[in-house]
Input
Amino acid sequence: MSTLPTPATSIRTPVLVAQMIVRATGLAQIVLGLVFWTGHAHRFVPVHIALGVLLVAALWIVAGLALSARVSVPLAVVALVWGAGLSVFGLDQDQILQGSAHWVIQVLHLAVGLAAIGLAERVGAAARAVA
Output
């Protein structure tokens, strides 16, 4: 007699796949960001933006799956809001604090992105733990 998977157990693989996407795109984002900071390869900014969109989408998938299984609900909501904020901040960062102090915005952008990766890890781990 087989049992049907519960929402918590059926999300383990999709959460892991979404986390792997966050990890891969996050690493690519860090590498591209460092290349940009050195003043090179600015022609790849559209790639950086596309990967950022993919990272946020994967973060939202992790958070949405956790919410559907009622796992780590407050943190999953934070992840959804954080992803939206990261999207706006990332796309608008060139217009914030322009000039010689723009490096502050670049460091904040890195920190917000790293926090998004951390949120995906934390929410994903909680979701996979109940499976």
User: Anything to note?
Assistant: The chain has one domain: 7-129. The chain has a mean pLDDT of 91.
